[in-house]
Amino acid sequence: MSSNASGSPASAPARRRLPRRRARGSSLDPHETRRALLLVAPAVAVLALVIGYPVVRAVWMSFQADQHLDANGTFVQGGFAGLDNYKHWLLQRCGDVACPPGSTGSSFWEVVGITLFFTVVTVSIELVLGFWFAVIMNGKFRGRGLVRAAVLIPWAIPTAVTAKLWYFIFSYDGIANHLFGAHVVWFGDKWAARSAIIVSDVWKTTPFMALLILAGLQLISDDVYEAAKVDGASAWQRFWSITVPLVKPAVVVALLFRTLDVLRMYDLPAIMTGGGAGDGNDTTTLSILVINEIRNGFNSAAALSTLTFLLVFGVAFLFIKFLGASATGAEPKAKR
Amino acid sequence: MMTSSRWRTVRTYLGVAVIVVWGLAPFYWMLVTAFRDLQFTFDATPWPTHVTMDNFRTVFDTSRNHFGRSLLNSVLIGVVTTAIGLVVGIFTAYAMARLRFPAKNAILAVILAASMFPGVALVTPLFQLFRNIGWYGSYQAMIIPDISFVLPLTIYTLTAFFREMPWELEEAARIDGATKRQAFTKIMLPLAAPGVVTTAILAFIAAWNEFLIASQLSNDSTQPVTVAIASFTGSKPHVEPYTAVMAAGTVVTIPLILMVLAFQRRIVDGLTAGGVKG
Predict the structure, then answer these.
(1) For testing the chain B interface, which of A333, A335, A336 should be mutated: the one with the most B CBs within 10 Å?
(2) Cβ separation of B120 and A287 shorter than 8 Å?
(3) In this predicted model, what pLDDT tens digit does every residue of A79-138 receive, in sequence order?
(4) Model ipTM?
């Protein structure tokens, strides 16, 4: 009993809340609601400030004109621009003419293509490798702690360091060329540079994918496999009819997070190639394009960043709608 | 039977070897290079040769780089961001895991959406705003945007941890006469400590990693190590200072590796608990 039991312990049970798992549809306790909203308010306020404000401001900016030349050839400052900034990107129009080759305006769709290419290739490779890693780590072997620590190292190294590390590995006299007896100028060629970026990203983030899939695998009880074995299912059948469907929710969440990460990828290509590969925009992602565009004007950059976040949310929406990603955390948690 | 199970063991250990090499080999190469003399940058011997501490001296040579300063900046930005994320996150996660209230799923969805938000969409408006109000290059110019991804992460991870806590103990404390606040701070918070520590590590690593916003909104004296490394210049002009960059990378990475080794189990739990991004 606590020291201040002289209070009103006797009345406590009467005021005690009902057990949490009440029947659905029962009315909410107004006190609890008020307390909850008070507790949640700071986070909502902070998020409104650090995300809500910039988003609203970016959208507002995207409809304003940057400093430009008017019909008389004099510089004009801003003003309402309607959809001009969006036309600039989506139709690649600079004023009344097509944007000149090499300008940021002419590269929009190319950059969207590159970003999607990175996303599809990186996430596919990661899924296969990550699944394989997860299956191995789910097996029984000595030194599991060591392996989990080893796999966390690429994840823990800051991306800027990863970029520099792989830039060194892929340098002309670097260890990659040495190991394979190759003489590839990795950052002088479009596809070589893209491959180098993909390898670096896959190295860094496969562990994350593997750990999420591993968490899913660990939820599957051995009994299910035993039962299937008794019923005569082959290893392959057990994999396709038990492992894959049961681990699917974990895989979809991992895919969702990784896909969104690659769609907004900046650090790796920005540090390794600066977005080019010798010349052009061969490794420019949408995020890099936004940053490059800031030099030309805040408002056109804001329109581009708005398009970027529409793309990211569009993809997230598709995931949640069609793959049933339930990343809201509302489901019961994995028991560890 | 014997051979099939032995084959499976062999296969498992081969796979384990692949995973360990995958995780360690590039990191090992960074270490080896960090201690190698600049002249022998491209020596391909797989063990340390031409060992020197010169690279580390170059890294901390204040006449060329602000690396030491950047290291402190990263610690400051990481600690403050983590602290804000934790304090605000604990309140929210408690409510999410423990209380019933309307709009709960809507709020959860907003927080999830926030975690998917592309950082680049923050840069343009904040760049302009911070220049207008004189915050460009300040610490808050990096800490405030960092909160946008650290806070969703702390809320998700903590909510997952809080869901699994023995909340009956809180009820028991209440019956014994503790106030709600006391029951939470005296009983539940200590029990939640492991989850809070894990979340703090994840948040700190995320903030320590940040590059995009810092690269745009910091100046020479406030830039964190990630930006410093990306723009690192060596001791000789026109020579890519790989060895010094690897030394800098080693310095930046070692604290994280130590954390990973010490809290490996917790970090895995934290990553998978919230299904949070890394």
Answers:
(1) A333
(2) yes
(3) 787 888 898 899 888 877 888 887 888 889 999 999 999 999 999 999 999 999 999 999
(4) 0.92
